[in-house]
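The following record pairs a protein chain with its ligand, guanine.
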Amino acid sequence: MTGVVLDGKKISREIQEELRPRIEALRAAKRAPALAVVLVGENPASQIYVRSKIKACHDLGIRSIELRPPGDISTEELISQIVPLTKDPEVDGILVQMPLPKQIDADKVTSYVDPMRDVDGFGTHNLGSLVLNDPAPRACTPAGIMEMLKRYRIPIAGRHAVVVGRSNIVGKPMALMLLHENATVTICHSRTKNLAEECRRADILVAAIGKAEAITAEHIKPGAVVVDVGMNRLTDPAQVHRLLGHDPARMAAFAKSGSALVGDVEPRAMQELSSAYTPVPGGVGPLTIAMLMANTVLLAEMRLNGRSSGC
Ligand code: GUN
């Protein structure tokens, strides 16, 4: 079997095109939606993600406001930069790029982003709404995955979904979103015994671990749908060869650039065993950005309409 590619770029374009008339309507009624992006320090991966997010805003006509505090900022200082944004009537969404440097209390910072501007859905209020399945902004990566499963008409109700990873950003919200669509959900993590055995039960397997080669052929039930959330940049030629040696185009790109982006799932196993899978790159990544744009538009609409629903 060769799995169908779940094309995140295509779905991301569709979602963003559907936002255009809503953005136009907001512009006509008041002003363009506006997103504040806070990037602390110089984390190279975060810099790339934030650049993509700001470009997406620009392409859609969403105003972006960038704050780039230094990497050695304290929790209190960072909060003092965020608080004015939470009072600014010209700001619809606030995104604090994760991960934050070690000295910062990320949960405390997140708690200062008001629910009406919590575009990532990371705060206590919006996480509560997720648990209750009330309308509110949802964490962008799992929300994008749900949107993709829906658009590819992948059945969820009654199926066994296994989520590997229990982060607040992906694993936990993902599990709840699958549960709300009536999947039977298992969450696996670093202390799970017999991970491969648990994963092999999955009709839908979501890997959100953050480690290349964490999921291999022995973890995948033939015919499963595999969603690979991992984004791991590899530079070790032996490892790259092991994972991408079957793909001449990717090996040529690696020879040129010296690095390769892979997910958490061994690419060949995923292609050969799954019925459908998200490639890395081009799978989950673009969906996160599309949902960020969608959440920004949603918050701007709620602001305009006196935010009657959700938050
Ligand atoms: N870091 C990785 N993914 C995300 C995300 O969706 N939002 C934020 N704020 N940070 C992230």
